[in-house]
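Hi team,

As requested, here is the filled-out complex form for the calcium ion run. I kept the field names the same as last time so the parser does not choke. Let me know if anything looks off before we queue the next batch.

— J.
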Amino acid sequence: MTSILIVEDEPDIADLLRIFFDEQGWASSHAIDGKRGLDVFRSRDFDLVVLDIGLPGQKNGYDVCREIRAHSDVPVMFLTARDDEVDRVLGLELGADDYVLKPFSGREVVARVKAILRRGRSDEGSRSLHYGEVEIDLGGKRVLVEGAEVELAAKELSLLLALAESKGVALSREQLLDAAWGEGWVGDTRTIDVHVRHLRKKIGDDLPLNTVRGFGYRLG
Ligand code: CA
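And here is what came back:
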């Protein structure tokens, strides 16, 4: 089960986050200042820390992040009220994974947490391509948008996986027919265009499925 530590002194914000995390089936713990946050952090394993910058007591969010980073590379997402804190948060000294500007929506936070957790997993060896909210999971042969699997017809999926395997390189319609339908399949290459149209519609604008005029298609 995904487990998240929230270090935030404003109870309304912490409660909102916990409600949204609950809905995702994530367990969360809450600490109201930096010292307590570090105590809780050391007491068990977390998949992610959501950290407010302005905290009461001796340790602000920056201090907490530095102490966490000294022992752990757990993903850290900052909550910040000010634009001008963002550069520092994401900089080398603190090395946060992401930040959210207050005020924020619960949905936004959930989407960002999911993105961070997916990134962490793909670093561990499974092969995935990420484009905005779209994830193409090559190992699992599936496509997710905002973490939810998109229902694709078998040929649509084969076509997309073929493009993903050669990302950045254009494939001709004939190559795509071979890849998705099997070599020697004799058919109308316009079938490819129809499937591409479906893919674009089902997956949405974050998918960089580009038309290469007079030739075929390229992903990315
Ligand atoms: Ca605060």
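Two things worth flagging: The chain has a mean pLDDT of 89. The radius of gyration is 22 Å.

Thanks,
J.
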